[in-house]
């Protein structure tokens, strides 16, 4: 039996979520009404997974998550609204160590709870197998987030790091491209890699992060505020420039194409032939149509499933280079593990070493 702790201040939401997991037959369900109760039960019940509401009285979800991750780390799935503010707080939670998130259903809960039933169960089962990220100075990161919150500073309006410089080859031809595929646990992984890159990073970076549309713009702005390189969401065709990271818009796909003789990041409707979006598989395949494989670097980070494993293995077979995040740091070693199983990884590296390797292979 998997022990799940459901934390929500809404009695109706608690009722329906508890029914969902009891119906599965292999969950032992406990319930908490707020963060104070949740923190106590995280110690006493020792759940395998916690679902945690963001907005609660007495102790909000972020404060509760911070305490849990320091005192008794557990896999946590955040339950959030699909608003801009909800996205901001959810990304903060993922940065602090939450494994995944699920959007609350729109409208009346009793009428729309089935919209999230399958995804909720899948995410909780996946979280039960996930590695809780204990590294990367978690205590210091929790204290930093607390300082930011107490100062009333919104993440999206953080000043850019000092020293951001225009890439030396920004106006010249693009010499190559980095293609990053990532899913569950991805925001924390990207937040570790991109801020470590120099502002004059030599190639553009295209990122397919499985995420809803309402989250990717907020995600790009958050990482932009933490990094020396520019980070932007691809909401329209954008010519690729060195030292810029392009985040694919959620619930759509991101392709590499040619526009006006320039390599271009192009958002397109999500393909029904692919299960996850933005699709890593489509991104890598499109890049190989326009760029020589020797000038492409594929990076496969944490995530469930196998999206992009076939395409990145093909990229390596054609002479390109690839990096798979190692099992020791991946929240879920699904996508990078599949790449390794297919013999498609040039290197397997812990998360903290990937940025340096990217720099060496693109200069």
Structure description:
The chain is α/β, with parallel strands linked by helices and 363 residues long. 39% of the residues lie in helices and 21% in strands. The strands form 3 sheets. The protein has a 7-stranded parallel beta sheet with strand order 8-10-7-6-13-14-15, sandwiched between helices. Strands 2-1-3-4-5 form a 5-stranded parallel beta sheet, sandwiched between helices. It is elongated and about 60 Å long. About 4% of the residues have low confidence.
What is this structure, in a nutshell?
The protein has 363 residues and is α/β, with parallel strands linked by helices. It has 2 domains: 149 residues, Response regulator (Rossmann fold); 200 residues, Rossmann fold. It is built from 13 helices and 15 strands.
Q: What is the topological layout?
A:
Layout: E1 2-7, H1 11-24, E2 27-32, H2 35-44, E3 49-53, H3 61-71, E4 76-80, H4 84-96, E5 100-103, H5 109-112, H6 114-128, H7 138-150, E6 177-182, H8 186-193, E7 205-209, H9 213-226, E8 230-234, E9 238-239, E10 244-248, E11 252-259, E12 262-269, H10 280-290, E13 296-300, H11 309-317, E14 321-325, H12 335-341, E15 347-349, H13 351-362
Parallel strand pairs: 1-2, 1-3, 3-4, 4-5, 6-7, 6-13, 7-10, 8-10, 13-14, 14-15
Antiparallel strand pairs: 9-12, 11-12
Helix pairs in contact: 2-3, 3-4, 3-7, 4-9, 10-11, 11-12
CATH architectural group of the largest domain: 3-Layer(aba) Sandwich
What's the Cα radius of gyration?
20 Å
Count of folded domains: 2
Q: Fraction of residues in helices? A: 25-40%
The largest beta-sheet arranges its strands as: 8-10-7-6-13-14-15
H/I helix tally: 13
Order of helices and strands: EHEHEHEHEHHHEHEHEEEEEHEHEHEH
What portion of residues belong to β-strands?
15-25%
Are there runs of 5+ residues with pLDDT below 50, and where?
Answer: 148-160
CATH superfamily of the largest domain: Methylesterase CheB, C-terminal domain
Shape: elongated
Question: Can you tell me the CATH topology of the largest domain?
Answer: Rossmann fold
